[in-house]
């Protein structure tokens, strides 16, 4: 059985998600210790636990340590089964745990299942410290589609902090083989568009966010406006183009203009880097590149500790797979020898 140190590198929930996702995909048992040891609240949190239980459910796994706060986990998967699945991040805690993080753990093995999957996940769709649902729709899934993974996602209800209650639905057809990629060229500003959205706040919040985006990036920037349906109030700005997306969330007392500015500043930093992928997509897509049939190369705006940790986890299962050119915190190039 493979034993992984849950405190390695970045030492967060992604290490758990990637480890278990690969364990299910490859049918390999794994034991993880010191889970999120360096965090203020160590051990499994609600969205991590939902991911563990969801992966166990789709693979019929035997699991030890699947409990809130658990710092050790033993996971022995069997066979992945496609079908119809529903998972609720807030089932026991009523939290706005991230639906997208759970989805990202489930997708690699479900794409390898023998039959298609319909997947519904309920919880937080637009919450801090996780990719918003729109990032999956407009950045991650199009990148995966270029590799052959044609997943559809529908946002049926938005879910903000604190109660969540949002919902996404995904259709996941099996993929026989992923195509390798060369993602080297930075996108142009003309390739980007934006969304200004909010729930249960005055409409002028949406307008002010949109106006600020165009003040900063030009009146030609397409900006959609949406009054979102949700349980709680919230606001959101999203700016996206090929292989890159930048978002910001509103908060009580936070001016609408500041929300827009945060997304714009992230975009401008990306633009200055002359990279092809934003830092988050690089982190999320490398597992699929490792399963592609051939060599892939990508240029990311930043080599992050998240990325380095993810590469380490993948190589614990697959062996030497990646070459990294660049320093932590700087623009870099990743070469991947796919094992597909």
UniProtKB/TrEMBL annotation:
Keywords: ATP-binding, Cytoplasm, Ligase, Nucleotide-binding. It is an enzyme of class 6 (ligase). It catalyses: a 3'-end 3'-phospho-ribonucleotide-RNA + ATP = a 3'-end 2',3'-cyclophospho-ribonucleotide-RNA + AMP + diphosphate. GO terms for biological process: RNA processing. InterPro entries: RNA3'-term_phos_cycl_insert, RNA3'_phos_cyclase_dom, RNA3'_phos_cyclase_dom_sf, RNA3'_term_phos_cyc, RNA3'_term_phos_cyc_type_1, RNA3'P_cycl/enolpyr_Trfase_a/b, RPTC_insert. Residues 188-269 form the RNA 3'-terminal phosphate cyclase insert domain. GO terms for molecular function: ATP binding; RNA-3'-phosphate cyclase activity. ATP binds at residues 104, 280-284. The active site is at residue 306. HAMAP family: RTC (MF_00200). Belongs to the RNA 3'-terminal cyclase family. Type 1 subfamily. Catalyzes the conversion of 3'-phosphate to a 2',3'-cyclic phosphodiester at the end of RNA. The mechanism of action of the enzyme occurs in 3 steps: (A) adenylation of the enzyme by ATP; (B) transfer of adenylate to an RNA-N3'P to produce RNA-N3'PP5'A; (C) and attack of the adjacent 2'-hydroxyl on the 3'-phosphorus in the diester linkage to produce the cyclic end product. The biological role of this enzyme is unknown but it is likely to function in some aspects of cellular RNA processing. This is RNA 3'-terminal phosphate cyclase. The gene is rtcA.
């Amino acid at each position: 059985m493979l034993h992984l140190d849950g405190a390695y590198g970045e030492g967060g929930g992604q290490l758990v998600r990637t480890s278990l996702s690969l364990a299910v995909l490859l049918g390999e048992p794994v034991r993880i210790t010191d889970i999120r040891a360096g965090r203020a609240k160590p051990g499994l949190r609600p969205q991590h636990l939902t991911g563990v239980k969801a992966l166990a459910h789709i693979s019929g796994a035997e699991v030890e340590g699947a409990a809130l706060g658990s710092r050790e986990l033993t996971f022995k998967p069997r066979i992945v089964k496609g079908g119809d699945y529903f998972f609720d991040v807030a089932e026991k805690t009523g939290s706005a745990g991230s639906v997208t993080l759970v989805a990202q753990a489930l997708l690699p093995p479900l794409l390898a299942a023998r039959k298609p999957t319909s997947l519904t996940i309920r919880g937080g769709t637009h919450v801090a410290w996780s990719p918003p649902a729109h990032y999956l729709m407009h950045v991650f899934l199009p990148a995966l589609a270029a590799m052959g993974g044609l997943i559809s996602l529908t946002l049926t209800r938005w879910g903000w902090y604190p109660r969540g209650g949002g919902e996404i639905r995904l259709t996941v057809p099996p993929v026989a083989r992923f195509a390798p990629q060369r993602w080297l060229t930075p996108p142009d500003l003309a390739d980007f568009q934006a969304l200004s959205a909010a729930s249960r706040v005055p409409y002028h919040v949406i307008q002010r966010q949109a106006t600020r985006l165009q003040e900063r990036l030009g009146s030609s920037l397409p900006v959609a406006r949406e009054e979102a349906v949700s349980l709680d109030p919230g606001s959101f700005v999203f700016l996206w183009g090929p292989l890159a997306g930048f978002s910001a969330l509103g908060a009580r007392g936070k001016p609408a203009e500041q929300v827009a500015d945060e997304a714009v500043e992230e975009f401008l930093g990306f633009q200055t880097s002359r990279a092809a992928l934003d830092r988050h997509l690089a982190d999320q897509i490398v597992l699929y590149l490792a399963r592609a049939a051939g060599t892939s190369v990508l240029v990311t705006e930043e080599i992050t500790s998240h990325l380095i940790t993810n590469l380490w986890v993948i190589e614990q299962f697959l062996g030497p797979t990646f070459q990294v050119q660049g320093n932590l915190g700087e623009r870099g190039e990743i070469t991947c020898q796919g094992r597909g």
